[in-house]
Write a structure and sequence with these properties.
The complex is a heterodimer of chains A (about 240) and B (about 240).
Chain A: H1 2-17, H2 20-39, H3 51-79, H4 81-85, H5 92-112, H6 115-124, H7 129-154, H8 160-176, H9 180-189, H10 191-200, H11 202-210, H12 216-240
Chain B: E1 3-14, E2 17-28, E3 32-36, H1 43-50, E4 58-63, E5 66-67, H2 72-77, E6 79-82, H3 94-104, H4 109-122, H5 138-150, E7 156-160, H6 168-181, E8 186-190, H7 194-200, E9 203-208, E10 211-216, H8 218-222, H9 230-238
Parallel strand pairs in B: 3-8, 3-9, 6-7, 7-8
Antiparallel strand pairs in B: 1-2, 1-4, 4-5, 9-10
Helix pairs in contact in B: 3-4, 4-5
Classes of the chains: A mainly alpha (about 240), B alpha/beta (about 240).
């Protein structure tokens, strides 16, 4: 665990050593603001809640999180620092988890900086802050799920653009899996497939959290989702590191 | 005296291409082994397998008795490794980078600071300690890589082209440094500079097309060619039809 922390700390410091952190946070906050207040009709709805905010959150993540993860491994491979990192006395699993946790901590910081939304809604009305809290918890889990996808795909290539595009595409699949667009299509051939797609959808799982429900099965879903992709990440690193 | 590095039947194939073909040798404490060969002969691949970065197709290596595959982390604790091209994280400062390596190597607090200072002193990096690595010249970058490999005073040093890109004065300093450390360590260096082998190495191995073609003291290798020059011996052994 100590090694994971050391790796994570270096990685997190890396975000702030470059303009990546500032650009990401500013764009994230700007997008969430514009989408919530303008497209989401935050004021016209006349309801003291953050439903529009949480509705847009997975879509903003879809775009920005692969941008955050694309460098995680692709950059190490391009610079050759992966050879340095993986010949230090650490396991590959520790490196994978450390990098993932750094990116997740960074997302948590960005998400925490959306606190003015909570203040705004509390000034304007009497929202159910419990529901807001579970929504934030769900948002963090969605971020973790997308980060684990992006991190694994970043290990598969030296090219950051490819890592980004693949990341967006795969995250998109898991985001829309519960949408009629996908389920109707699948249901034509097999209703079972449609049901599986719905169960696998990140967006579907997130819905519960935005309504104030933290279900054990959703927590298990996110834990196994992230665990699966990080395992895949480790396997990819093992096989591709020296290419 | 026991060998600190033991390599047994090390083989690496990439598809049908055999990069390293059944290479075996041992290096004892006090030896400085010069690893010579034309580009693409398999020097770096052998060193990467020794450092546990690449998985051998067949055979194995042991560092201080620890198998680099089965007991990989323990083997890497005993090893200081300078990868080809001396990769370092470009946005970290010299001191920050070395502190990171020190903490991964298990040092903390005052001891870590002492280790970093010692490594900076050995490689004369004091003047650039707070500069980001990306702003440094090639020679300085190489020395940062060297400092990283020496920091924990390992019994085994594997240095892939440690003097590449250094000016003549810096080359001299690095050779002195290696010579000073030599009595307590087993050191493997790869190089293209044959005079360095004469000046520094107690033994040299010439590798061509993945196979060991010569193994002996520099003086013995020189005798293999009528001219008595290592240059000529090297060419005769590594070119299939030397003129």
């Amino acid at each position: 665990m100590r090694m994971v922390r050391i790796i994570a700390r270096r990685e997190l410091a890396g975000y702030f050593a470059t303009p990546v952190a500032a650009v990401f946070i500013v764009i994230f906050l700007a997008l969430q603001g514009v989408l919530t207040f303008n497209l989401g009709n935050f004021f016209d709805r006349n309801q003291a809640d953050l439903v529009p905010f949480f509705n847009f959150l997975p879509w903003v993540y879809l775009l920005l999180i692969p941008a955050l993860t694309m460098r995680l491994w692709a950059e190490e491979r391009r610079l050759g620092t992966i050879e340095l990192l993986l010949t230090l006395p650490i396991t590959q699993g520790q490196a994978v988890v450390g990098k993932f946790l750094a990116a997740w901590a960074f997302c948590a910081i960005a998400l925490a900086l959306t606190f003015p939304f909570i203040i705004t809604v509390n000034i304007l009305g009497k929202p159910d802050n419990g529901v807001i809290a579970t929504g934030y918890a769900g948002g963090l889990l969605v971020a973790g799920a997308f980060l684990s996808i992006g991190s694994a795909l970043s290990a598969a290539t030296k090219n950051q653009v490819i890592a980004f595009v693949l990341g967006v595409a795969v995250c998109f699949l898991f985001a829309v899996a519960s949408y009629p667009l996908v389920t109707d299509f699948l249901a034509k051939s097999s209703p079972l497939l449609a049901e599986i797609a719905r169960r696998l959808s990140v967006a579907e799982r997130f819905q519960g959290f935005t309504r104030g429900v933290i279900a054990l099965r959703d927590l298990i879903y996110f834990a196994s989702f992230i665990g699966f992709w990080l395992f895949l990440n480790t396997v990819i690193v093992e096989h591709r590191k020296a290419d | 005296m026991t060998a600190l590095i033991e390599i047994e039947g090390l083989t690496k194939r990439f598809g049908t291409f055999t990069a390293v073909d059944n290479v075996s040798f041992q290096v004892e404490r006090g030896e400085v082994l010069g690893f010579l060969g034309p580009n693409g002969a398999g020097k770096s691949t052998t060193m990467r397998m020794l450092a546990g970065f690449m998985t051998p197709t067949a055979g194995t290596a042991r560092i201080c008795g620890h198998d680099v595959q089965a007991d990989s982390v323990a083997a890497r604790r005993m090893l200081g490794f300078l990868p080809e091209g001396a990769p370092t994280y470009p946005d970290m400062t010299v001191a920050g980078f070395l502190r990171f390596v020190a903490s991964v190597r298990g040092y903390s607090g005052g001891e870590a600071a002492d280790r970093v200072e010692h490594a900076i002193g050995l490689t004369t990096l004091a003047g650039v300690r707070l500069q980001p690595v990306e702003t440094l010249s090639k020679g300085f970058k190489r020395r940062v890589g060297l400092a990283q490999s020496l920091l924990h005073d390992p019994p085994v040093l594997v240095l892939d082209e440690p003097t590449d890109g250094l000016d003549p004065n810096q080359k001299h300093e690095v050779r002195e440094l290696i010579a000073r450390m030599a009595p307590e360590k087993a050191i493997v260096i790869s190089t293209h500079i044959l005079e360095e082998v004469d000046a520094l190495c107690t033994r040299a191995i010439i590798i061509a097309n993945g196979r060991i073609v010569a193994d002996g003291t520099p003086a013995e290798l020189e005798k293999r060619h009528p001219s008595g020059k290592l240059d000529d011996a090297f060419r005769a052994m590594t070119q299939p039809r030397a003129a």
